[in-house]
Write a structure and sequence with these properties.
This protein has 119 residues and is an all-alpha fold. It has six helices and no strands.
Length: 119
């Protein structure tokens, strides 16, 4: 699981649509927490040690589009790693169910970091 989470976070951090959310983040900590979450909801022995998801994401203007982009990156990484379909579906289903805890705003380009300002 660790290599999959590693690829997921690396790709998300480099992504044009959502990468800016990771600029100030400690990527090793993000990877560790993401791995704990995945292991927990897929039946592993890990225990999640991060903040509650709503608290961890509250300061970020995450829209449904941003959330969907991360799910797409996860789906691609799972497919490339040849993860069995039933595991990939369970992983994606669990992450999809976290939308209300993660999405913090309706999409408003003026609120995004580095958005151009009107003259």
């Amino acid at each position: 699981m660790a290599p999959i989470v590693e690829r997921l976070i690396e790709r998300a951090a480099a992504d044009l649509m959502i990468g800016f959310f990771f600029r100030a983040a400690d990527l090793e900590q993000v990877k560790r927490h993401e791995l704990e979450l995945a292991q927990t909801h897929l039946g592993g022995p890990a225990r999640y040690t991060g903040r509650p998801l709503p608290e961890a994401h509250a300061s970020h203007p995450i829209s449904k589009g941003h959330f969907e982009r991360r799910l797409k990156i996860l789906a691609d990484v799972l497919a490339e790693a040849n993860v069995p379909t039933w595991i990939a579906e369970q992983w994606l289903s669990h992450d999809r169910a976290q939308e209300a805890a993660v999405v913090t705003t309706q999409c408003n380009p003026k609120r995004l970091p580095n958005a151009p300002t009107e003259p």
